[in-house]
Amino acid sequence: MSSSSSTSTGIPRELVKKRWLGFLIWQSIASAVLHLPNSIFFLRQHPSPSSPAAVFLLSFLAFHLSLLLLSLALFIVVSPHPDPSASLPELAAASFRYLLKALVGGFSRPSFTAHFSLRARRSLVSVLFLLICSAAGSLILLGICGLPQVLDLASLVDIGLRGVIFGLVYCLHYIYRKRWVLNFPIIQVSNESSPVYMSILPYTYLLLVIDKLHPFFDMLYFQRPLFYSFKVGLSSALKRAFKLSVQTHVWSFIIILLLPDQFKTINMIGEFMVQQIRFYIGTLIASICWEISHHLLQVSFKLLA
């Protein structure tokens, strides 16, 4: 939600800034909780020949830089209104008319109508969102899975390509499902016997403890009603993250197989299986971080919708 859209909807700009600040703070906290145990585990399983502290710092910076890029992409693409986008033939035809008018002249009608300009802007925003998500996906997988291969350029390229694929899959899913439209989070009662609910049960208890710190919430611009919406919708966000991680892992595996040999890392069968498991764990953590970020964004702007 840009400042122009907030002004057009009558929302105070200062309130929008506070909500974005609260979103960034809680996004960093939730993602760091997921990233730190994973980094410690990989460093213990694969000791780095260089300084472990430097390797950890590089992965931490890459991870949080990817989150900043994701926040920038969400800031650009989200909107409270489901604005339609222009198709590729429409953009090509409008560009041709504009060039023809600039070269020949003599046209009294404007090249672009106000409605088409809005649709074209939405299309360009979607393309920019695609590019930023690709870069953010590459960085987040490098920050999660790149610890053991910090000195192996071929493995880093492989991880970076898988991250680009992850960003592309996430972006296409985000745009196609119109998840960029700010809506009220759907409040549902979780099935207490489901595996997803059981997997987040310790995290839910932690949130209940944090809920007692009411002044701390006010300081971080995250009020208690919004906290309850976040807690209840956490299960559905994790379900989407699991589905997205499976889709991304399958597509990245297929695309990597079709690439030339210079973009592949040749390993033994055992190393290959371990590598695939590590990639899936990294993709799953990245999916959870991004889904939690999306859910935090919806919750943060719930009262503004």
Helix residue percentage: over 70%
Quick one: how many beta strands? Answer: 0
Instruction: Supply the number of helical segments.
Output: 12
Instruction: Average the pLDDT over all residues and give the rounded result.
Output: 74
| First and last CA, distance | 11 Å
The total tally of domains equals 1
Global outline: globular
- Report the sheet with the most strands, covering strand number, pairing sense and barrel closure: none
Sheet/helix structural class: mainly alpha
Radius of gyration: 22 Å
Order of helices and strands: HHHHHHHHHHHH
What fraction of residues sit in β-strands? Answer: under 5%
Keywords: Membrane, mRNA transport, Nuclear pore complex, Nucleus, Protein transport, Translocation, Transmembrane, Transmembrane helix, Transport
GO biological process, one term: nuclear pore organization
Membrane topology: Multi-pass membrane protein
Family: Belongs to the NDC1 family.
